[in-house]
Design goal:
heterodimer, A: 185 residues, 64% helix, globular, disordered C terminus, B: alpha+beta, seven-stranded antiparallel sheet, 8 helices
Chain lengths: 185, 251
């Protein structure tokens, strides 16, 4: 076996929460996210010798988690994109103060609405805390692609957050027929 | 670089992770000094990023997940040593000693066809529980391992069988062919399922309806599905196997 029990436990305790959060953003279901997290760590346990640089462990776990997710074709459904331009100006700003005040699960639910192609780099950006070069390595895409996906994803998140944070009394504004509501699940 | 181009780059900014020697960064940051609106946007975006990052850390994994991961690994490293392998090894040894004479006599009778030879040889091979290449009770692991073999990329195990806990799988070399063996436990019996490309066994049963037989004290079922031939062996009786693998509608 690649890593000792003690090493393995240390790695699990250090990273399992972030890997779970990333997995949850991919699967949108807690049970599947748990399975995906468990599988990622199992693969680390069995291939640990290939991950000798401890500083790259987190990237390795995210990469493995993402690739395991992609193995399952069921998840490769493309959802319709939000038409940002139609909703952007009608909504209040998503300010840091409002984000601080919101429930963490609501934030996660909002992130899950970002299109998958953008959501993955956005989650890596927030969870991995590393530069876009590492994100490019996880996704195996060029740097320019990461930059544009990250920018679009964060912009999409900002709009979705604004919509989520919108006071209920003004919710009627979103009934405008020009607003293209997303259909999830 | 204009302000819109700078925005794309600045979106990737993480405090402490920017490369100060990267001329693109320097240019984007210089642009914020020239464009107050961009600077305001950048400051707001960084504050928003920090808020989102902090809030995400408040998303709690389910209680016990870390322990489950740690225990799960231990279970996979030494799966079923106590529950299955040891008792099975003892039982197999007893069976082997008691039936040695019978086995030797029956070995002297040459099988008529290659498929019949396969059944006979595998019945002999399984007298002792085989060492597994992959020990896992998780069907996704077993199926992944199975379909990673180029010739078996389209192989499947009837979903009706996948409701039982897996034991693991291994390769078996036989007459220059590579067979895949999947083992699982069903209602107290161990079932061994050989999965073979049909092309390797020209005289395997052609029908999707299982043919049942008894070979050297083993109940067997054999059938073909697409390009794959299957051979199941168990110490359970034929009725048990028929219930387990009822027909083409199985799974």
């Amino acid at each position: 076996m690649g890593v000792t029990d003690q090493e393995f436990e240390q790695v699990v305790q250090g990273h399992y929460a972030d890997v779970f959060r990333f997995a949850l953003s991919l699967t949108k279901r807690e049970a599947e996210a748990c399975d995906l997290t468990q599988e990622s760590f199992y693969l680390l346990g069995s291939k640990g010798r290939q991950v000798e640089d401890a500083t790259k462990l987190k990237s390795w776990l995210f990469t493995t988690c993402y690739r395991e997710f992609l193995r399952d074709e069921r998840h490769r459904v493309r959802f319709p994109h939000v038409e940002l331009s139609l909703v952007e100006n009608a909504l209040p700003d998503a300010t840091p103060e409002r984000v601080h005040a919101m429930d963490a699960d609501v934030l996660m639910a909002t992130l899950e609405q970002v299109d998958e192609i953008y959501r993955v780099p956005v989650m890596l950006f927030y969870l991995q805390g590393q530069a876009y070069k590492e994100i490019a390595a996880v996704l195996d895409v060029p740097l320019g692609t990461v930059m544009s996906r990250l920018a679009r994803g964060k912009e999409q998140l900002r709009v979705l957050l604004a919509k989520t944070l919108q006071p209920k009394t003004t919710a009627a504004a979103t009934t405008d027929p020009s607003f293209r509501e997303r259909q999830y699940e | 670089m204009n302000s819109e181009e700078a925005k794309v780059l600045l979106h990737t900014y993480h405090s402490g992770t920017g490369d100060p020697d990267d001329p693109q960064w320097a240019e984007a940051l210089a642009q914020t000094r020239r464009d107050p609106e961009l600077l305001a946007w950048f400051n707001q975006q960084r504050a928003l990023d920090a808020a989102v990052g902090d809030k995400l850390q408040q998303v709690r994994p389910p209680l016990g997940l870390a322990e489950k991961i740690i225990m799960g690994r231990k279970a996979r490293i030494a799966p079923r040593r106590n529950r299955y392998l040891m008792p099975l090894a003892l039982a197999a040894s007893m069976v082997f000693l008691l039936s040695l004479a019978v086995v030797v006599v029956e070995h002297s009778k040459p099988p008529v066809t290659e498929f019949a030879a396969l059944q006979t040889d595998m019945a002999g091979f399984l007298v002792q529980f085989p060492k597994l290449d992959l020990a896992s009770e998780q069907w996704p692991d077993i199926l992944r391992w199975l379909t990673n073999k180029p010739a078996l990329a389209r192989a499947d195990v009837p979903s009706g069988l996948q409701k039982f806990p897996g034991l693991g799988c291994r390769e078996v070399k036989w007459r220059g062919k590579t067979l895949m063996l999947v083992c699982f436990a069903a209602q107290g019996e161990v079932v061994h399922l050989f999965v073979v490309p049909k092309a390797d066994l020209p005289d395997a049963p052609l029908t999707a309806t299982p043919a049942f037989a008894s070979v050297k004290g083993w109940s067997t079922a054999s059938w073909t599905q697409g390009e794959i031939a299957y051979l199941a062996l168990t110490k359970g009786n034929e009725a048990f196997l028929q219930k387990l693998i009822p027909g083409p509608h199985r799974g």
